[in-house]
Design brief:
Layout: E1 2-3, E2 7-12, H1 19-32, E3 37-42, H2 47-55, E4 60-63, H3 65-68, H4 72-79, E5 83-87, H5 104-110, E6 115-120, H6 127-138, E7 144-150, H7 154-163, E8 170-175, H8 194-214, H9 217-225, E9 230-231, E10 243-248, E11 253-255, H10 258-266, E12 269-274, E13 287-290, E14 292-293, H11 299-304, H12 306-317, E15 322-325, H13 327-332, E16 335-336, E17 339-340, E18 348-351, E19 357-365, E20 377-384, E21 386-388, E22 395-399, E23 402-406, E24 408-410, E25 413-416, E26 419-421, H14 427-441, H15 445-452
Parallel strand pairs: 2-5, 2-6, 3-4, 3-5, 6-7, 7-8, 10-12, 10-13, 13-15, 15-25, 16-18
Antiparallel strand pairs: 1-9, 11-14, 16-17, 18-21, 19-20, 19-22, 20-26, 22-23, 24-25
Length: 456
């Protein structure tokens, strides 16, 4: 089916060119105009979407071809707004290795999306024209429809515009050099603390005011509205009996792919949030989902919450299905940097002070378990400085030229460092819910029935 979805990708020439600052400025400015704006992030980053959602109060999702493949248009269509803005990652053409595969450009091509490129033009004049021409001509169909110049004066901007003659792409404005306290810098893994929230919201309003002054916002909206209808196929998602999934959500556990939770809800799950930091026990639920986050920053509080740890151990003993990723996996381990954790697992987690694994990974199940059947393949992303003495061997992981074992998993349990995206294998979500349904109802026929109802 085809959907009319006004959409625009704002990407950049390279990391650090200012695309995040400008993207958030435009997003906030359009929200201030009372437009129903949806935000997206190209690639596997679950931190920027959290930033969009929590700070800008705009729903945000990931657009990742590695995870979603043919379902990518569906993911955008399901989460689109009156206008949808996608933020690129790294440089526009930077993908897997030295290719453009899974890059922001790849996303633009798959979604037939007009693109505006941010260029850091500080200290340049005519040289900026060469960069613009180079990016526009690097691919036969670059999808680039315009540019925004960053860190330039009005005089320089007008000079560049006067000399830009290529009508295939328009210059949509500029940003001057900003005071250092109004530039969005990288934080610890993207961490936004409670104390920062009000300051950042004030910063966003300042940036939105700047965007109103020097960026052609009407032109960007027109460009988005001129995007051609998007063709997408809709997955067949089976509806199971209602179940409740307790999802860990607080300062320590906040890394989730929104699409995972939405898919579980579409299949019949009710999501109930709880806090391992602040609550004294689990809520009544049929399944527990512990996502990633910053347990290392809150290890003292987590260690001291004895009632929550005991509640988790009892849940595991009672065969309540538990799914945990990265930070959640570390919390279920016995020790985290010398502090006692939930001890559902026996491993000890320590900081290696450098990325242990970073990047896309494909997992293959070596046996039936909570999230897969033997031979099932899932795709995930890893980014962690910690390692564990017990990483599990339920899955074989393939990353670039490296193969290794991971995941501690069984019929009612799956935990490991990889952040799995369910749209890489929709049956993953089904496997979880069917196991929960069997545990709850004892209805063994559900497994057979779900197998026959393939996700197409």
């Amino acid at each position: 089916m085809e959907k009319n979805l006004p959409r625009l990708l704002i990407s950049g020439t390279n990391s650090g060119c200012g695309k995040t600052t400008i993207f958030c400025s435009v997003l906030q400015a359009l929200k201030n105009r009372r437009l129903n704006v949806a935000a997206f992030k190209c690639g596997p980053d679950y931190i920027d979407p959290m930033f969009h959602a929590e700070i800008l109060q705009a729903p945000s999702s990931n657009l990742d071809p590695y995870f979603c493949a043919d379902w990518l248009p569906y993911v955008m269509a399901e989460n689109a707004g009156e206008v949808s803005l996608a933020e690129g990652a790294m440089g526009y053409y930077d993908g897997l290795g030295f290719t453009s595969e899974y890059s922001a450009y790849d996303v633009a091509c798959r979604l037939n999306m007009p693109t505006v490129l941010v260029i850091d033009a500080k200290g340049s004049a005519n040289s900026v024209l060469a960069i613009m021409q180079g990016f526009l001509n690097f691919k036969k169909k670059s999808r680039i429809c315009g540019f925004i110049l960053n860190r330039v004066t009005e005089k320089t901007y007008r000079g560049i515009c006067a000399n830009w003659k290529d009508k295939r792409a328009k210059v949509y404005g500029y940003f001057p050099s900003l005071p250092v306290n109004y530039v969005l810098e990288s934080r610890h893994l993207g961490l936004v603390t409670t104390a920062e929230v009000l300051c950042i919201r004030e910063m966003m309003q300042y940036l939105a005011e700047q965007a109103e002054k020097t960026i052609d916002l009407d032109g960007l909206v027109d460009l988005a509205q001129g995007a051609k209808p998007l063709s997408c196929k809709i997955p067949r998602i089976p509806k199971l009996e209602p179940i409740r999934i307790a999802v860990a959500k607080d300062e320590a556990f906040c890394f989730y792919y929104k699409e995972n939770l939405t898919l579980l809800e579409k299949m019949g799950a009710e999501i109930v949030n709880f806090s391992p930091l602040h609550d004294i026990g689990l809520p009544k639920a049929d399944c527990i989902y512990l996502g990633g986050g910053y347990p290392e920053l809150y290890k003292d509080v987590l260690s001291g919450n004895a009632l929550m740890k005991e509640s988790l151990r009892k849940a595991a003993q009672n065969r309540i299905p538990i799914f945990a990723e990265c930070g959640g996996f570390m919390y279920l381990s016995r020790i985290l940097e010398g502090k006692e954790m939930a001890a559902v697992l026996s491993g000890e987690c320590t900081n290696k002070n450098k990325p242990v694994r970073f990047g896309y990974v494909e997992l293959e199940a070596k046996r039936d378990c909570l999230i897969a059947e033997k031979g099932d393949k899932l795709r995930a992303h890893e980014f962690h400085y910690y390692d564990c003495t017990q990483n599990g061997n339920a899955f074989s992981a393939k990353r670039k030229d490296e193969t290794y074992d991971c995941e501690i998993a069984g019929e009612y349990f799956a935990a490991g460092f990889p952040h799995i995206h369910f749209f890489s294998n929709l049956h993953c979500a089904g496997a979880i819910l069917q196991t929960v349904s069997e545990t709850k109802e004892g209805a063994k026929w559900i497994r057979w029935k779900l197998k026959k109802r393939a996700f197409r």
